[in-house]
Specification:
Elements: H1 2-7, H2 20-36, H3 38-41, H4 43-60, H5 72-103, H6 106-110, H7 116-146, H8 153-177, H9 181-197, H10 210-216, H11 220-233, H12 240-249, H13 258-270
Helix pairs in contact: 2-7, 4-5, 4-7, 5-7, 5-8, 5-9, 5-11, 7-8, 8-11
């Protein structure tokens, strides 16, 4: 008994700096959790985006002028994809912690040989994985039906993955501090959803007054949607953060869009 106590000391980690096996197990558990109810967690958001696009296209028809040099349907489709990623990544991490607290299963995570950073890492990456699956399926559907094409896959994945991580992290914070589902719903209904709709999903901020353009630049969801949309239509809509990211990321990638290639070549010649 004494030898066992010397070999296995309480509170001493025996997994190295990071418990990779435990972190992956929790990540796998979170992924399987939303895959088990894929009709609600995956196909529901995809169907919502399709319905938004269908209803708006039928209501407007050909009366809407082009936006930023592309048809309004293509402009709208790219924004709808990212809007669903924002909402669903947040919903996954926040609901995971809330359900754990309500059902008492959070003790399994608390008493596991995982540090707090490892738990957050697993849950946020699972949230990002859910967002990537939703966006990938939605993109394939829109490519087939409305001839939407990815012009820069690197930026498409970067904005998608980082956006999912950011919203997953925000969901963890809300899930930890919320004591009941009503409090979590308050954050969703009065912060997440309004900021999503006011982030340029359905319109270009070029049509807004100057003071509203400035306010839009302080909306983090605008930069997520604007950057993600750029990977499809390769047109800048005015976000100051995305100016910097594009200038430093596009030099390492090649786009299938000739207009972007010409702009990059001209910028490098000036340097």
């Amino acid at each position: 008994m004494v030898e066992l106590q010397k070999k296995y000391q309480i509170g001493v980690r025996r997994f190295g700096i990071i418990n990779w096996v435990g972190t992956y197990s929790l990540f796998k558990k979170e992924v399987l959790r939303f895959l088990t109810v894929s009709g609600q967690t995956l196909f529901g958001p995809i169907l919502t985006s399709i319905l938004f696009l269908t209803v708006i296209s039928l209501a407007i028809g050909d009366q809407r002028a082009d936006v930023l040099g592309v048809t309004y349907i293509k402009f709208l489709a790219s924004g709808l994809i990212m809007m669903q990623v924002i909402q669903q990544s947040f919903a996954h991490s926040s609901s995971s912690l809330m359900m754990g607290k309500m059902m008492g299963t959070i003790t399994d995570v608390v008493h596991s040989p995982l540090s707090s950073s490892e738990v957050v890492f697993a849950i946020t990456f699972a949230s990002a994985a859910r967002g990537v699956l939703i966006a990938s399926a939605s993109t394939l559907i829109f490519i087939f039906f409305i001839d939407l094409s990815i012009q820069n896959f690197f930026l498409w994945f970067i904005y998608l993955f980082l956006g999912g991580l950011v919203m997953g992290s925000l969901g963890v914070i809300v899930g930890l501090y919320a004591d009941k589902f009503d409090q979590m719903s308050t954050v969703t209904n009065f912060i997440i959803v309004p900021l999503s709709f006011l982030s340029g999903t359905f319109y270009s901020i070029d049509r807004l007054p100057d003071f509203l353009k400035v306010l839009s630049n302080y909306n983090p969801f605008f930069h997520m949607i604007d950057g993600f949309r750029y990977s499809f239509i390769v047109v800048n809509t005015g976000g100051f953060l995305n100016h910097y990211i594009r200038d430093h990321c596009t030099r390492f990638t090649r786009s299938t869009n000739p207009r972007l290639e010409a702009n990059l070549a001209a910028r490098w010649r000036r340097r």
